[in-house]
Amino acid sequence: MTFAPRIDVELNKIRHNTRILVQRLHPLGINVIGVTKAVCGHPEIAKAMLAGGARGLADARICNVERMRRAGITAPIVMIRPPMLSQVREVTDTCSASYNSEFETIAALGATAHEKRMDHCVILLIEMGDLRDGILPDDLDALVARIIDLPGIALKGIATNFACLGREEPDHLTMAAFSALADDVEGAYGPYMETVSGGSSVSLPWALRSFKRGRINELRLGEAILLGIHPTTGNPIPGLHTDAFSLTAEVIEAKDKASYCSRPRVSPKTMPLRLVPDHIESIRVNLAIGYQDTDIAGLRFPEGIVLAGATSDHTVVETNDCGLRPGNEVNTQPNYSALMRAMAARDVSKVMHSAYDASSRGPKRRIRPATSLIAIDGGFE
Ligand SMILES: *Cc1c(COP(=O)(O)O)cnc(C)c1O
Fold this sequence. Notes:
381 residues; alpha/beta; TIM Barrel; Lyase, Ornithine Decarboxylase, Chain A, domain 1; 2 domains; 9-stranded mixed β-sheet; 8-stranded parallel β-sheet; elongated; binds pyridoxal-5'-phosphate
């Protein structure tokens, strides 16, 4: 009834993490938007975020938004990657708003919305130094002037990104400058900037520390909710679960190859991940999971098991514990990159648990009984 490779998801932990972050940010005047792109818009995970108090959802791909809509989710969903011109119809059909930085795209969204006798809500994405996507602050005024009277377009706010491409966390001055842009647009053109979205999980330390949050009234949180960590430092966020996800692979071979190859061959890529000195592991264990399923270098293995290397379909680990035999399972903890790829991988089953039962947590490599199993799906519908 359970299959490997699979990703087990404790929905309660995701709900809990969302709730704690909402409780911390709400008194500061900041709404939480749950970002679902790393889990491909998995509807159960999206619902757990909403149940935890997220004001709405956000995703980067229209297919993920459509998946959530098909599952009956009616909450606001914002498209946080500027839409492709070829998808403006789908965006106006399914998203409550979209982030934009190009006039052509906004004009096309407006034309499509106008045809349907509706307004599409636009949030202007502002470049504040990450150098991925966004309008330069100096060009904002000219763009607003061009879109403000477009039929089918309702300008609802501004948003910015930090540490997506670069690694810079936001500082007070940058945030203050961003917040002031909301006042500038209102002063010059009139519409109330309802949403002033100050970034992703990397903006959390700023939000919790700052005494002057200005107009910023929203953060879009993915990694902090899902993995309970600060993306830039990797440190756990106090009070949050860091193990809502585990990725499990099955052993297909376990052999002592020490006599054949005196020094285990380790690929340079995974060398920095080896936490245990070379000489103590002698058993090489093959797991039926590979780069096609996840970012192998982003997996944390149980104590005493170290990664030797991986190919598209195999992962070789080393251990001095000869207890592992074919059919046993090894549980790992995925980082954001490993999680994102595993959730998108066709051959990784996604198993949702609605309640977390600590007593069912056996030794790491045993098959964990699936408590309160509510859904299994093998990849995309
Ligand atoms: C991915 C993304 C987020 C969420 O980032 P996390 O680090 O997962 O919190 C927020 N906003 C935008 C525009 C994104 O692309």
